[in-house]
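User: Before I run my own analysis I want an independent prediction to cross-check against. Here's the chain; please return only the structure tokens and, at the end, one sentence I can use as a sanity check.
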Amino acid sequence: MSSSSGGNASISVRLQNVTNELRQIQGLLASEKGLAPRILIDFRDAVNRVRNTAWGMEQYANSKTAETDPSTVLMALAGERVRVAYQLCKHVQADLANSEIQFQKGQLLQLRDATQELASQLGEVIGE
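Assistant: Structure tokens:
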């Protein structure tokens, strides 16, 4: 067995385990009344990101099998990353406004640097 097929088997097992765990969590969520909305939002966002990534990988694999151009799938995945980045920015803004949340200065400096670089690239792409 090649390392690639061994890796795929390992991923398949992990995916099946995660699927089983999600089914158990679904049952717990249906019966739990006292969860904080922010925890549920974060969980839902994470599940949506995984779902969209899985869809993208499936579409990409299908395009390779059908020998079609995968660029539309890649564009859809890039668009999804932009949507997720927007959502994350809004969540970070809310966290920064929340006096109960304490950030490490180093993390904020790294985020500032990354967002400045991104803003510069965005300006070039949209012609500003």
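Sanity check: The CA atoms of residues 62 and 125 lie 30 Å apart.
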